[in-house]
Structures are given as C-alpha cells and as structure tokens.
Amino acid sequence: MDSPAPGDLVAAAPTPRIPVRDRGGNLLGTFPVRRIYCVGRNFADHAREMGATAPASKAERGNPVFFMKPADAIVIDGVVPYPPGTSDLHHEVELVVGLGTDAPAGDLPLDVAASLVFGYGVGLDLTRRDLQAAAKAKGLPWDTGKGFDHSAPVSDLLPAADAGDIESLALSLDVNGERRQQSSLDQLIWNVPDILHELSKLYALRAGDLVFMGTPAGVAALQAGDTFDARLGDIARLQGHIAQAAV
To answer: How many CB atoms within 10 Å of residue 5?
Structure first.
C-alpha cells in the first residue's frame, strides 16, 4: 500500500483506469472510472429467460432497470478470481459505454445524449446468481449478487469517433471455445441515447462513468478454469479466464 497523500490519514487505492486504444491497437491513454451503471433486462430474450415479461413495443417499455457496481470492480487483465459466497457465478456479456462529458441531473435530451459518449468496449456483468435469486425471493436488494470484487471485466475502450455506427454490431460470448451468447445491438430495448436520457433523470452523469448496457439470452454458469472470449463486432474484444478463488 502506498503512503497517504499529504493531509490524508489513510492511503487510498488509486483510481481504476481502462486502457484506450485506436483501431490499430495503439495505446492513446487511459480512461479513469468514476461510476459503473448497469442496465437490467435490456434484451427481450434475456428478460424472458429470467422470468420477466418482455415489452411488445417501445410504447410498452415502461422504465429501465438500473443497478450499480463499484468502480474498482473492473478487471482489465482478464483474470477473474472465482468470488466468495457463491456456487453459481454467471456470465452476462454486454456493450460497455464510457462517458467523456458531464451532464447535470435532469431531463437530458435524446439528441444530446450521444454527444456524452467517449468510447465503447465489451464487458461481462458477472453475477452471483444464487445470492441474487435469494434476495429477489425475499423482496430484498440484490447488491451482493452484482456489486462484488472483480465483477466487471472489461476490454480496452475504442474512441467513439473510431467506432462508427454501432447499432447493428454483433455482441457475442464464447466460453471454453463454445458460443454461449449472441445477439446484435439493434435488439436492445433501450439504446444508448435512451439509457443516458433515463439515467439523467436520476443521476448527474459525469466524465469517467461507465454504462453496462444489458445482456442477451444465454446466461449460464462459469467455473474456475473456464476461459471466455467476448466480442463486440470488430471493435472490442475481451479474453480471460476464471481463476481459483482468491485467498
């Protein structure tokens, strides 16, 4: 642990940072993470597999489901220790959006929302499904099922200016070389501007915020020793493995 900064009484952990690279793989710098917002049930097929009713049209969407993870839950080297307190760790592959501009809390216009985006990546919203299910059954918050150490593996970010139109990009996850999840971003119930608009009604969005945009159907368990390969079209890739539990 580093020594405390002048005036501090304890030594704080450094700000988590994600590498930012161009399409050629050249390192441009890093993205300091402030908060991680996550969207639940944002693909109709996943909503149905989790026992929820999927909207038949945009008019029936209601409100998106949000939850959060701590900023230091990110994993950038792909090595994820199997977490404590669970025997049912699940993968959820997701588009990850990094914000590069602040927006005050309020009704952020949809036509302005896209301008907040700094870059895109792909990540896993890892879930202690047994803890989440137990909390849901009792009508309790399910933070322990979502917001734990190493629960947000994420790829390098690609600047939005280099990504082009992402609406129809494919999102996929292979585990141990076999396809587990696959969809395209045009299947999102709420797209990126929609979600930023809705988040702005609840929070003041800031540069450094990440948004995990929700997962398609096919979520399933991971075991220690499993390898994973998540991809967002040809613009982002996350490879890694589940290690033995940390001691």
So the answer is: 9
Question: Tell me: the pLDDT tens digits for 54-87?
Answer: 665 566 678 899 999 999 999 999 999 999 999 9
> Tell me, what amino acid is at 114?
A
3-state secondary structure labels for all residues of the chain = CCCCCCCCCCCCCCCCEEEEECCCCCEEEEEECCCEEEEECCEHHHHHHCCCCCCCCHHHCCCCEEEEECHHHEECCCEEECCCCCCCEECCEEEEEEECCCECCCCCCHHHHHHHEEEEEEEECCEEHHHHHHHHHCCCCCHHHHCCCCCEEECCEEEHHHHCCCCCCEEEEEECCEEEEEEEHHHECCCHHHHHHHHHCCCCECCCCEEECCCCCCCCECCCCCEEEEEECCCEEEEEEEECCCC
Buried b / exposed e over 100-130, threshold 16 CB at 10 Å, is beebeeeebeeeebeebbbbbbbbbbbbbbb
pTM: 0.94
Rg (CA), the chain: 18
**Residue 118 and residue 157: Cα distance in Å, rounded?**
9
Q: What is the set of domains in the chain, with CATH numbers?
A: 22-243 (3.90.850.10)
In angstroms, the CA 29 to CA 17 distance is: 10
Strand partners, 242: 80
Nearest one of 124, 90, 113 to 201, comparing CA atoms: 113
Q: pLDDT tens across 145-187, in order?
A: 999 999 999 999 999 999 999 998 999 999 999 999 999 999 9
Kind of pairing between the strands at 227-232 and 170-175: antiparallel
